[in-house]
């Protein structure tokens, strides 16, 4: 928390999960997070999912080029297809450039 993300590209992935194949989904999600972390330009990821199955994952990239390269990665593309077939009812992707941000930590 607290990292300055000014100028980074944020990919906001909002989705609704199916009730199918929780184990397969969890395994794929962990693999994609690990793979993303190895990619040039990866700057971090934050994710949350509610009991209703709606989730939001934000991945941060150094720039648009590194975000596009991640989208085109063969393993990511293959998992994306599996997601469409069995893990998601729907999803939406929003791409944004971070202009400013702040954080607070209570104590």
In short:
With 107 residues, the protein is α+β, with helices and mostly antiparallel strands.
What would CATH call the architecture? 2-Layer Sandwich
Query: What is the tally of helical segments?
Result: 3
Shape field:
globular
**Rg from alpha-carbon coordinates:** 14 Å
Q: How would a textbook summarize the main sheet?
A: 4 strands, antiparallel
What share of the residues does DSSP label as strand, in percent?
25-35%
Name the strands of the widest sheet in spatial order.
2-3-1-4
Extended strand count: 4
- Which structural category do the helix and sheet elements fall into? alpha+beta
Structural domain count: 1
The percent of residues in helical segments reads 25-40%
Mean pLDDT: 95
End-to-end separation in angstroms reads: 14 Å
CATH C-level class is Alpha Beta
